[in-house]
Amino acid sequence: MEQQPPDEYVTQSRDTSYEAEHLIFERLAALTPEARLERLIALNRSARSLARAGVLLRHPHATEDEIFLRLSALRLPREVLIALRGWDPWQHGY
């Protein structure tokens, strides 16, 4: 039986049906806190790995310090990097 969304409900993604989203949320709710944390850690690790790969695609000869700065520039305000390291991502790139 197809479930109907509550009035004016909008899914998190336009390409996801209400039924699919409802199932995802049901399964996530059934996880233990430890399992949720494990998933969060794995997603975070994947996001960092993808960000690093992006930096290396844009700057294949970057040193480890440059990679660190460019990754930091994706997460920190420009002013912080300038104040802490004297490095401006607008000048050097991300």
Which helices and strands appear, and what pairs or packs with what?
Blueprint: H1 18-30, H2 33-58, H3 64-75, H4 78-85, H5 89-92
Helix pairs in contact: 2-3
Structure characteristics:
67% helix, elongated, mainly alpha, 94 residues
The structural class is mainly alpha
Instruction: State the helix count.
Output: 5
Largest sheet: none
Q: Roughly how many Å is the radius of gyration?
A: 20 Å
Topology as H/E string? HHHHH
Apparent shape = elongated
* Beta-strand content bin: under 5%
Q: What is the number of independent domains?
A: 1
Helix content: 55-70%
**Poorly predicted runs:** none
Compute the separation of the termini in Å: 49 Å
User: What value does the average pLDDT take?
Assistant: 94
Number of strands: 0
Oligomer: single chain
Could you explain the architecture of this structure?
The chain is mainly alpha-helical and 94 residues long. The protein has one domain. 67% of the residues lie in helices and 0% in strands. The chain is elongated, with a radius of gyration of 20 Å. The protein starts with 17 loop residues before the first helix and ends with a helix.
